[in-house]
Structure prediction request, 138 residues.
Amino acid sequence: MGLPCITRVKPTSRVCGLDIHRPDSFVPVAGVYYCQRPPNLELAQHLAAHIMAEVEISKAELVIFNGIWSGISQFLKAIQRLAVTRHLIVADDFDTAFDGLARVGPNPVQVMAVSQISGKQGLIHVDFRPPNSFGGKR
Prediction:
C-alpha cells in the first residue's frame, strides 16, 4: 500500500476494513487495516479513499470501519451499497450524516450505541436504538 502509518493483518476473504486504533490492547481482525497512530482528518480521508476501492471489490462478508467516520462519511453511497450485500459495522462518534447511512433501503438496520459509564473506568453501556435517534447525543 505504501502508506507508513498503517499495517494490515494477513488478509482473508471474509473480513476487510479500516480501524484507526493500533491493535496493542485487543486481538486484531485479519483483513482489516490498522493505523499505527490516529490520523488527522486529511489523512483519514486519504486512507479511506485508498481503501474504499479495495473494500468495494473484495468478497468480504463483513466490512468494519472503526473510528474513521470523518474519513468515510464522504463515501455515503458506497457505504450504503456495501450494506446491501454484506454485514457492515461502522463504529464511531456520529454526526448528522449518520441518519442517511442508516437508511439503506429494504434491509433492516440495527444500531447499537456504546458509551463509557461515567466514573467507572473500563465499563461500558450498550444501548439499542432506532437509527433516527442519533442526532449527535448519547
In short: Confidence is low (pLDDT under 50) at residues 134-138. The beta strands are 6-8, 15-19, 32-35, 62-66, 87-91, 111-116, 124-129. The chain has four helices and seven strands. Residues 114 and 126 are 5 Å apart (CA to CA).
